[in-house]
Specification:
globular, Nucleotidyltransferase, domain 5, 151 residues, 5-stranded mixed β-sheet, alpha/beta, 7 strands, two-stranded antiparallel sheet
């Protein structure tokens, strides 16, 4: 199998103490695996690309295609140059037609639903400060649960 193909999307989440209020969700299109990376909705294109580079490219290799919406975080000159350097083909969904990347959009919606339920219905996670319902500390468990589901 060739290099991976990814779908990217942001979702806003409740602000927490570390000022993280968004999640970059990355879907590997063939295996349908997901990576959820906490971040801030005000991150720039450079911040977003560094998150992608440090967490995805360094671990999984350079993708052939990256599909995303037309958010400036993915369409800026910086990303365009990065696509050229990596030899990656960008593909952007059409405005008001997110079904262009239906798989990633569906996974992102599912992850959002799971997180909301974990936090609302009392899933507790023990950390050094005590028990929490915080979405950032629950994110690895949600990611693991999704990736272990039968697709």
């Amino acid at each position: 199998m060739g290099n991976p193909q990814y779908g990217l999307g942001y979702r806003t989440c409740p602000r927490r103490q570390r000022k993280l209020n968004a999640c970059l969700i990355i879907v590997e299109r063939f295996r349908k695996s997901v990576r959820c990376l906490p971040c801030h909705k005000e991150y720039t294109a450079i911040d977003t690309s560094l998150i992608f580079w440090n967490n995805i490219v360094s671990a999984c290799g350079v993708p052939n295609i990256i599909i995303s919406d037309r958010d400036l975080k993915f369409t800026s000159e910086f990303w365009t140059n990065l696509y050229d350097i990596l030899g990656t083909k960008p593909a952007f969904s059409t405005a008001y037609h997110p079904q262009t990347d239906g798989l990633a959009e569906r996974v992102i919606q599912t992850m959002e639903d799971i997180l909301r339920r974990f936090c609302a219905y009392g899933m507790e996670y023990k950390e050094h400060e005590g028990y929490t319902h915080d979405w950032v500390t629950l994110l690895p468990a949600v990611q693991l649960a999704y990736n272990k589901m039968r697709q």
